[in-house]
Write a structure and sequence with these properties.
It is a single chain. The chain is about 30% helix and about 40% strand. The radius of gyration is 21 Å and the shape is globular. The chain contains five helices and eight strands. A hairpin with a 6-residue loop joins strand 2 and strand 3. By secondary structure, the protein is α+β, with helices and mostly antiparallel strands. About 25% of the residues are buried. It has a four-stranded antiparallel β-sheet. A four-stranded antiparallel β-sheet has the order 5-6-7-8.
Length: about 200
């Protein structure tokens, strides 16, 4: 028994920290491509646009930005391309969180954003016991709508890389519409590179 305990203590003290750490969680096909060993992967990113976040009843600008970027990767000499979109929240040069979504998630995300924005407008004056609408990407980014009575709350949610929690920011229905427009531009840019994405009306 003493030998067994000694072996465990030796492993905890001597082995490097990376040995005990669990592997990075890979939530998307694109991330899987990025993490494949033994190959050179060329990665090209293009900012599509951003939304200035506000807070409070007077909607004071906070300085934080919600950014949307295209993300395209390929192996030099290979015609196959891998497509994704990145969502980032931060302020200035500081990035609080960044999440990738596979290109095939974008059309449904656009439809969901439009649906949430329209529903928020349509039921704004209606008394609701509790109404919720959410859309989650595989990697943990989400847009969420809640209405209780006539009080509405629209939020974007990012996983917090520094904890097991979330980074939650309120947005307006107009900002969700703008977000869907940025995703339209994202699809245009990805299709220009050969993604072949379509959005159902």
């Amino acid at each position: 028994m003493r030998v067994f305990i000694a072996v465990i203590l030796f492993a905890l003290v001597i082995l490097p920290p990376s040995f005990a750490q669990s592997p990075t969680k890979i939530a998307t096909d694109y991330e899987w491509q990025l993490n494949q060993p033994g190959r050179t992967l060329f990665r090209d990113r293009l900012p599509v646009g951003q939304i200035a976040l506000v807070a409070g009843k007077k909607e004071k600008v906070t300085g934080e930005l919600l950014q949307v970027l295209t993300d395209i990767a390929f192996m030099p000499g290979d015609s196959n391309r891998f497509f994704a979109v990145a969502f980032r929240i931060g302020e200035g040069s500081t990035v609080y969180s960044e999440v990738l979504a596979d290109a095939d998630e974008i059309p449904e995300l656009i439809r969901s954003a439009r649906y949430i924005a329209q529903t928020a407008t349509d039921i704004a004056s209606s008394e609701r016991a509790e109404t919720k609408i959410t859309f989650h990407t595989r990697a943990g980014f989400s847009i969420e709508f809640t209405q209780i009575g006539t009080q509405q709350q629209l939020t974007v949610v990012f996983p917090d890389p520094l904890s097991d929690g979330e980074i939650i920011r309120e947005v307006s229905a107009d900002q969700i519409k703008l977000f869907s427009d940025l995703l339209d531009l994202t699809i245009f840019e990805l299709n220009r590179q050969g993604a072949g994405l379509k959005v159902k009306k």
